[in-house]
């Protein structure tokens, strides 16, 4: 006899373990669909900047500043690469990090504090973890599309030297999720938006500037260099460069993927705890 099945607000709830898992997946899918439907109304506002920003960055820094770097002694520090080739995969990973931080900060706080979107979702059979994972998947979608656009642009600039370059998108996605998950938690526990402003000034901006996207971190003082090595962005930048250059090192890639997945897992656990605490404490 097959397990009994009920339908509540379009979300299946089953008595059997397998169907129960299917019901949970569908619940997460519902939460993801909410953010996708909302994005359908606003995507045009981000489409232009998503294409324009990599073109401007690469033209100004890769070609403009790069013309001075490539003819000077600084090129030796880049491993013999041109500055355009050096900076392009770094910008992909850094932009993935920025996109993730933006999408998982103020929108999350707004869903709790200003628009009450989360409370509306949780008035349905959706559980807190369904709401969290559904929104996190949407952030992953935004990061993925941004990385794909960057890959097209940097390839057009001639900064991808190998078919391995396709995997720069994976490096960018992991970097974005590694930053997004703990940012979800911070935006959930923060009681004022000034907390997020401080977070961007003291964490996101320094990480963007000093994690190796624009210059080798070996040029930094020893203490600052150790901090840079501890950031998820540095690992994302390193992996993106290896893939773009076509010289992946398995040991470093395994280490980088493991480190970023640790950030994703720990950040998601923290965010889930923050969600439950906000609802029930």
Automatic annotation (TrEMBL):
Compartments where found:
Cell membrane; Membrane
Outline the extent of the ABC transmembrane type-2 domain: 45-278
Annotated membrane-spanning segments are: 46-66, 86-108, 129-158, 164-186, 198-217, 253-272
What biological process terms from GO does the record include?
Answer: response to antibiotic
Annotated Gene Ontology cellular component terms: ATP-binding cassette (ABC) transporter complex
Major subcellular location class? membrane
Region listing for Disordered, in residue ranges:
1-22
- Classification via InterPro entries: ABC2_TM, ABC2_TM_bact-type, ABC_2_transport, Nod_factor_ABC_transporter
Q: Which GO terms describe its molecular function?
A: ABC-type transporter activity
Identify the domain of life. Bacteria
> Per the record's keyword annotation, is Ribosomal protein included, yes or no?
no
Going by the UniProt record, its keywords in alphabetical order are: Antibiotic resistance, Cell membrane, Membrane, Transmembrane, Transmembrane helix, Transport
What is this entry's stated membrane topology?
Multi-pass membrane protein
Protein family:
Belongs to the ABC-2 integral membrane protein family.
Output the PANTHER family linked to this UniProt entry: NODULATION PROTEIN J
Q: What protein is this chain from?
A: Transport permease protein
Q: Which organism is it from?
A: Thermasporomyces composti
């Amino acid at each position: 006899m097959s397990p009994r099945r009920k339908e509540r607000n379009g979300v299946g709830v089953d008595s059997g373990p397998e169907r129960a898992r299917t019901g949970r997946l569908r619940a997460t899918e519902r939460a993801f669909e909410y953010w996708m439907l909302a994005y359908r109304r606003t995507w045009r506002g981000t489409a232009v900047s998503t294409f324009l920003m990599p073109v401007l960055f690469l033209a100004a820094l890769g070609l403009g500043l790069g013309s001075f770097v490539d003819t000077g002694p600084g090129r030796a520090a880049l491993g013999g690469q041109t500055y355009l080739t050096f900076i392009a995969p770094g910008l992909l990973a850094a932009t993935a990090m920025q996109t993730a931080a933006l999408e998982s900060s103020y929108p999350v706080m707004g869903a709790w504090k200003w628009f009450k979107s989360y409370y509306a979702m949780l008035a349905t059979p959706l559980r807190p973890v369904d709401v969290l994972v559904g929104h996190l998947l949407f952030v992953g979608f935004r990061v993925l599309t941004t990385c794909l656009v960057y890959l097209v642009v940097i390839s057009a600039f001639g900064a991808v030297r190998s078919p391995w370059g396709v995997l720069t998108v994976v490096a960018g996605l992991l970097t974005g999720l590694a930053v997004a998950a703990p940012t979800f938690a911070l935006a959930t526990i923060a009681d004022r938006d000034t907390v997020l402003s401080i977070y961007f000034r003291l964490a996101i901006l320094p990480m963007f500037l000093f994690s190796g996207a624009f210059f080798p971190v070996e040029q930094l003082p020893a203490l600052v260099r150790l901090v840079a090595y501890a950031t998820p962005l540095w690992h994302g930048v390193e992996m993106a460069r290896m893939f773009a250059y076509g010289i992946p090192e398995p040991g470093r890639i395994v280490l980088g993927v493991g480190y970023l997945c640790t950030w994703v897992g720990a950040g998601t656990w923290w965010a889930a705890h923050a969600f439950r605490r906000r609802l029930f404490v």
